Automatic annotation (TrEMBL):
Signal peptide: none annotated. Keywords: ATP-binding, Nucleotide-binding, Transport. The lineage of its organism: Bacteria, Bacillati, Actinomycetota, Actinomycetes, Pseudonocardiales. Belongs to the ABC transporter superfamily. GO terms for molecular function: ATP binding; ATP hydrolysis activity. The keyword Transport applies. PANTHER family: D,D-DIPEPTIDE TRANSPORT ATP-BINDING PROTEIN DDPF-RELATED, TRANSPORT ATP-BINDING PROTEIN. This is Peptide/nickel transport system ATP-binding protein/oligopeptide transport system ATP-binding protein.
């Protein structure tokens, strides 16, 4: 599949949104950093604050933002690897927020995660066959005698040699390991895949192969995908919808063509202006936006709009009002008092 094919497949059917198979509402998560002598928390890191998202079968929701924006924590909450302080996660009509034990184990068959680092995601003491087929064993789909055959079939689905079942992770390249992780995630037939920076640890040529593979598998199986990435270009080409995060909040979301083609939040415009442009003439014409300073600490968040301390068009009201996501056109929403304002330069 060529890069043009990737774009064509990813953009197909962006107009009509079916009912979501995954929905999350009001997600909040903070992590205690310090406690006093009585054990009471005196300092917290606010990672996620009031995040809502939804994704339908066969669709991809891209979650984009710089490091520290909270996007990976959102992915781990949705995958039930981290419990939220508040909010709900519903998959196929089942609220996963409070499920425990055996019920949670059964629910995980509908929701699988592909991790960022394929080197740390695989147990170096277990064979590839064991790693790939173990979810089937855990969920009672097969017996131990059937693991090798099941693993070989799954490896073929991700374009790997079935003969790798007896090898160990140290014998594989980074791209092969990530394909193994994808095969493992697909083993129990999940309805939702959470892909957290699935290509960031790989070289450029391998990244394209893995992204093409994810597209093909989604086209075949119809999974809903939450694709978490700091790479705006990847999100632009592969996602149907996009949510832009900054300091634990979604500041803009909507259909990817609308958000990327007509960004309304200053932070989204900053992200897009930093994307390399291969055409020198187009690069020269493009507005290049440089913001001052680093993001505020998630331990001590600013009042009002969280981007105001770096925003080139902030006004006094931005320090007093914390803007909510508001629809600007159809499904395109933005959280900014000055949305759509002119040049940021």
């Amino acid at each position: 599949m060529t890069n043009a094919d990737v774009v064509a497949v990813a953009k197909a059917g962006r107009t009509a949104e079916p009912e979501p198979v995954l929905s999350a509402s009001g997600l909040v998560k903070s992590f205690p950093l310090r406690r006093n002598l009585l054990g009471r928390v005196t300092e917290r890191l606010h990672a996620v604050d009031g995040v809502d998202l939804a994704v339908a079968p066969g669709r991809t929701l891209g979650v984009v933002g710089e490091s520290g924006s909270g996007k990976s924590t959102v992915g781990r909450i949705v995958a039930r690897l981290v419990r939220p302080d508040a909010g709900r996660v519903v998959v196929a009509g089942r609220d996963l927020t409070e499920v425990r034990g055996e019920e949670l184990r059964r629910a995980r068959a509908d929701l699988q995660m592909i991790f960022q680092n394929p080197w740390s995601a695989l147990d170096p003491t277990k064979t590839i066959g064991h790693a790939v087929a173990e979810p089937l064993l855990v969920h009672g789909r097969i017996g131990r005698a059937d693991m090798a055959a099941a693993a070989a079939e799954l490896l073929e689905r991700v374009a790997l040699d079935p003969g790798l079942v007896d090898r160990y992770p140290s014998m594989l390249s980074g791209g092969q390991r990530q394909r193994v992780c994808i095969a493992r995630a697909l083993a129990v037939g999940p309805r939702v895949l959470i892909a957290d920076e699935p290509t960031s640890a790989l070289d450029l040529s391998t990244r394209s192969e893995i992204l093409n593979l994810l597209l093909r598998l989604q086209d075949d199986g119809g999974q809903a995908v939450v694709l978490i990435s700091h790479d705006v270009t990847t999100i632009k080409h592969l996602a149907h919808r996009v949510a832009v995060m900054y300091l634990g909040r979604i500041v803009e979301d909507g259909p990817v063509d609308e958000v990327m083609g007509d960004p309304r939040h200053p932070y989204t415009r900053v992200l897009l202006s930093a994307v390399p442009q291969p055409d020198p003439e187009a690069a020269a014409r493009r507005e290049r936006i440089v913001v001052a300073g680093e993001p505020p600490s998630p331990v001590d968040l600013p009042s009002g709009c969280r981007f105001r301390t770096r925003c080139p068009i902030a006004v006094a009201e931005c320090a007093a009002v914390d803007p909510a996501l508001t629809a600007v056109t159809g499904q395109h929403r933005v959280a900014c008092l000055r949305e759509g304002s002119g040049s940021l330069g």
